[in-house]
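quick one, two chains, predict together pls
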Amino acid sequence: MKANPSTRPDGIHRWRPATWVLAAALALLTTSAARAAPSSRPSVAARREGPAAGYSARALLASGDAALAAGHPGGAIVELERARLLAPRSALVAGHLAHAREVASLPPASPDHATRVARLLSGSEWSQVALGGLALAAAGVILVSWGVTGRKRAAGLVVAGLAATALALFAAKKVTPARGAAVVVAADGTARIAPFSGAEPAFVVQEGAAVTVRRAHGDYVLVSSAEGQGWLPRTSVETILPADAHRP
Amino acid sequence: MKKLIGISICLASTLVIAGGARQAWGRSPQGRDTMDDGVPSREPARALLKMDMKFEPSQRGFYAGQTVPVTIRAYFLGGTGVTVNGRPRLTSDALLLSELSAEPRQVSVQMHGLPYTALLWEGKLTAVKAGPAKTGLELPVALTYREAPRLRPLPSRGEPHRAGAPGGDEGDGQAGADDDPFASLLQHTPFANDPFFAQMLHGHDPLGGMFDDLGGAVRQREVTLRDAGVTLDVAEPPAPRPAGFTGAVSTFELNAALPDETFRVGEPTHLQVTVRGQGSFARLAVDGLPATDQLNTYGVTSEFTSGPTALGGEKIFTQTIMPRRAGELTIPALTLTYFDPRARRYVTRRTTPFRISVAPAGAGAEATSGAAAPTTGPVGDGPATTVPAETALPAAPRATLTPLFETAPFWALVGAMALATLALSLLGRAHQRGLLGRLRAERRVRREIVLQRRKIGAAVARGDAIALFGAGRKALQARLGARWGVPAEAIAAADVVSRLGPRGVRIHDVFERADRVAYAGTIGAPTEPSADRSAPSDLNGWQSLILDELRTLEARA
């Protein structure tokens, strides 16, 4: 018989909360995974922010082309920017977007190298890569805890996973427009110094130009661009991500 | 860049007014009074500025957002050369002057018997905000005029001669008589200091400056004409403001039209809304139709055409719309809300909804998400006029454009993964240290003890000594086995004595009696000399003893 002097008969009382935490975490994991999984059915939030059937790159491309044909290069650029969010590798979308910019008399976009690399995947695809990296790091921690693998190999897994996560999140952020990123969709882009039509003009923004919406006041929004800050009618700008798209 | 307007007015008439230069650009109260009542002033102004507002007779107030036609008049005395350095501008930010004619109209008028040239600008005055608003006005001009020759005073005895006239400008100061031999011819005569001549000439020198002011001196000044204006009391349109009111004040009519053509899925068409009326068209806005699952809509553009009257006009709003589904489609009504100052109430006008038939697209597909086959491509020599590589694009619709990492479920998933990792790694470490095996063994022991305690209770209740001691021994064996790390059933009475010593006497007694009861069926005295002679005589006492020993063993553990 082998004696085990470290046996603690009352230890079970201390492990019960941990059991519950683990169970709760697993339940949460399951629920979140189910909610985060791409669904062909739009959620309530999606119905509020976009068409009932959701967004598809193909439909957005068609919509952008129609706007361009109707003489609204600004609206076309918005739709094509949205299409690029869903299909970042599509040469078709990139070509139509470049053409829309040309029609709007805007200079061709020249993204930096990091942005070009980041556009290999969409924001959601980069998010999935980040989750994969996190899972890799978690696997390294768990394997070394259970003694399945050596410390060096586990440390390698953890470092590689965390690096992949960080890089993927950086790339996802790079390809995702900021909250206020918008495009001027009106032909008359006269920004004024105050939010009413009689105010003095501050500067003129070209239709299709990219601006950043800072805040709103009544029927006007305060935008900033390379020319400065000024107030444009709310209908003159359209954010690339719809208003309710960001929900933390 | 400031636009400069240069206008030169040269009238044949040469009118010389003594002393007029000093007040030429100021509209003195004296001058204004005389202009209003028609009585000529002794010193009429050389330039005047005024603004006339044309309120309707039925108008009962002036509201923020309301527009009235105005005429701005600038009068310049005949013989004055004028260069207008800009347009008239308001001095108050409570009012807005707009649609001023680029070039002023020029007319000749007679005022108080004097010839004036009037420059007229037509425009619109809009109240921007409620409260008192002053209609002060400014106009920068450059005036060129010929000043009248003036008689110089006779110099008194011993007093140096002053070349300037008494009413002359200080800036016109000229050299003294000593430097100017032509300053006063009279001064060099014997009559210069004669009191008789001085009285006869009323103190003036008729010969003084006769060479330097032949026909008067030409002067040029850059001045800003100002009109103090009046104070208007601007009222705010009454609250509550209806939804859709954008500040338009006046009366308007609304009309909508669609082109007479075949509507097709994916093909844009233009919805035209025409607003006619009189008032502040600048504040007039139509929201346009929102996008629906049946209709794609785009921004609204507008174009204003002024009408025959000062405030009248027509503003055409155009919105591009594109049907997304084939079949019957209703274009909803558009509304326009404005404040009618005459009726003092808000008015909402609505267009008539349209019912149109939308034919399928040329390719026979609808432009709905996911199933769409877009038929319209970019205009001009763009990448394509149709979409040739639709299959290259994902057609499956996504619920949202927001990337996964900006959603709450993503971060919940990350948190859950972290928690799970923590829990699993703790479990792994516990497993490696043997904690899990010990925990499982302890759990088995507790379960066994609980079971045997129930049996003990039941045995006491029915007076079953065999069951009582049997269960008691098993419970004690389970506890001792877990403590010593040996199988419970292998522990005998001898082990208890050898391991526990005197502390195990009562447990040893229980083990012995259990054996005896099991084999003999009676509770006898213990055979071992070390046994406790004061053992209980009934089953209740034995129950208490066993439970006490179990508690003691648990406490020691």
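Confidence is low (pLDDT under 50) at residues 1-16, 34-52 of chain A.
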